[in-house]
Amino acid sequence: MAERQLIQQINMNGRACTLVIEKGCITEVGAPDLIPEARDSVWNAHGLLLLPAFRDAHVHLDKAFPSDRWISRTPVSSLFEQFKLEKELLAGCKDRRKELAVKTLEAMLASGTTEARVHVDIDPDIGLSHLELMLQLKEEYASRMTIELVAFPQQGLLRSQSTPYIREALRMGADLMGGVDPAGVDRHIELSLETMFELATEFDKRVDLHLHDPGHLAVYTIEKMLDYSAEAGMKGKVTVSHAYGLGEVDSGLVAELGSRMAGEAMDLATSVPFDTAMPPVPLLAASGVKISLATDHTGLDAWTPYGHPDILRRGRLLAEKYIWNDDLRMASVFQWMSRGSLELKAGDAADFVLVKALNAPHALAALPRRQLVIREGIPVAGSLWQGNSGFAAWRNIPERSEWADEYDR
Ligand SMILES: [Zn+2]
């Protein structure tokens, strides 16, 4: 087996280069005509564009509906009715839970996602059954995707009396403590947040809260989260997901809250919803808040029929929403859906996606097929992927001369 993999003729942010990969890391970014050594394995990318591998900051793998039968949905009048409806509909596809989760994971990988934060439903009715499945999948997919699991009391931590189950989930290996609307769902902001932060502290876990509550209630809830985070010494360990309400209040208030969030290193995950208000990403980013993009919905589910597993598509939606049609702002979207910059350097993990596009803005606009998805130097998905054979997989991938040469769009 080759000790070093050379990928020649890669387009990295407009520059042709050769990547040298050893033991999962980039060890050299060389000239496009870098001469290989005898022991090197070489693959020529013939100008494919490198994008940093994607991270989906908020996704559910236990909520997908099958795509081979239509599950009818009807309008609901409240969030609680929605919770009830979802439970009933999901119970009907219980036997296919693993198959549907695997399908979602494969679709995410094929679109370039190699890191994901997965929220897992837990309540007294389903107990820890979903978590058991997700822990199993996390292990099965460990060589292809880094998965974090959030113990998520979808029906409300206090409202559904899920605390003992969540405690058990954290003991079993969930990575984060989840929650939902301490005011709107649990009807007791202080007690709900106190319980969340106490459990997180007890098990040394991070926190990620679903916040759908509107306007000033959302602002107040985040202020309280900031207080609890500071009190518990959890700076940098707390995420607020959605926070739709921040799109409904005065921008001065959001900027002020944003600087407090930045001070406590509280980050925000948004799925760029089009059917509700959304947090003002440019303003929060300018205030120093770390933003991450998320799919949340990956296909048909009880909340929307319009989900999609491709995080790049969410990035494009964000750019469309803010009418970012210049190179600089289009390219800026990538910082919110990956860990790396558009350029990898020696010492970085070899986690990247290769696409047929001219540059990052082109990729955002065209959403080209992901030709290869690479994690720790090994191809793990993509249209050229030949299956799981570790580092040697490179040898089986055809040269570009064998493919159609047009750009996808
Ligand atoms: Zn969610």
Question: What's a concise summary of this model?
Answer:
This protein has 409 residues and is an alpha/beta fold. 30% of the residues lie in helices and 22% in strands. The protein has an eight-stranded parallel beta sheet with strand order 6-7-8-9-10-11-12-13.
As for the number of domains, it is 2
Q: How much of the residues is beta strand, in percent?
A: 15-25%
Name of the CATH class of the largest domain: Alpha Beta
Task: Show unreliable segments.
Answer: none
Q: Please bin the fraction of helical residues.
A: 25-40%
So what's the overall shape? globular
Bound molecules: zinc ion
How can the largest sheet be summarized?
A: 8 strands, parallel
The total count of strands amounts to 16
Major β-sheet strand ordering = 6-7-8-9-10-11-12-13
CATH homology-level superfamily of the largest domain: Metal-dependent hydrolases
Overall mean pLDDT: 93
InterPro entries: Amidohydro-rel, Metal-dep_hydrolase_composite, Metal_Hydrolase, Metallo-hydrolase_Enzymes
GO molecular function: hydrolase activity, acting on carbon-nitrogen (but not peptide) bonds, in cyclic amidines
Protein name: Cytosine deaminase
Organism: Paenibacillus catalpae
